[in-house]
Write a structure and sequence with these properties.
With about 170 residues, this protein is mainly beta. It contains 1 helix and 14 strands. The longest helix is centred in the middle third of the chain and has 6 residues. The N and C termini lie far apart (about 45 Å).
Length: about 170
């Protein structure tokens, strides 16, 4: 059975990464097995990712998951697809996003906190099928004015930092 967890890759995208890691410093390689992110599946063998393969069509592509034995399990089984909703602004630039206090967008992240944390994934929809576009966003859903940056065209949260007073 596939399980969802946070992993880090050493490249610009999951499809082109060389290896997966369990820590943000990229020092501890993830266990060998099958991993998927969206519609791409990869197998890590002896600490190195093999070629990217498109997952078969199964109706519900899932976020980054792991399974030790099965590529189909890792692509199509729900693996805990619970997403946490939070309010945010539309995309802006680093310098301007904190000045936008119109929190009229609802996005969803794969973490358990009130707002997304670094290394998590953010989606435009509750099903987790449409990653948030690259850019800077602003939220105060946790009670603190915070900006976060999405990269890699996967909804990946690359940074989270306080805005201060907009």
């Amino acid at each position: 059975m596939a399980t969802r967890a946070t992993y880090y890759f050493d490249g610009f995208s999951f499809a082109t990464a060389i290896a997966l890691f369990t820590d943000q410093a990229l020092t501890t390689k993830a266990a060998d097995g099958y991993y998927s992110l969206g519609s791409i599946s990869r197998r890590q063998v002896n600490g190195f990712l093999q070629g990217a393969v498109n997952c078969p069509s199964c109706g519900d592509a899932i976020s980054l998951c792991y399974d030790v034995t099965s590529a189909s399990e890792v692509c199509c089984v729900g693996c805990g697809t619970t997403y946490t909703g939070f309010t945010s602004t539309i995309m802006g630039t680093f310098g301007s996003v904190c000045g936008n206090t119109t929190f009229d967008q609802t996005f969803y992240h794969n973490g358990s906190g009130t707002i997304p944390a670094m290394g998590e994934l953010v989606y435009q929809d509750q099903a987790g099928t449409t990653p948030l576009q690259n850019g800077w966003y602003h939220t105060n859903a946790s009670g603190t004015s915070t900006r976060y940056r999405i990269t890699n065209n996967t909804g990946f949260v690359a940074s989270v930092e306080p805005c201060g007073t907009p």
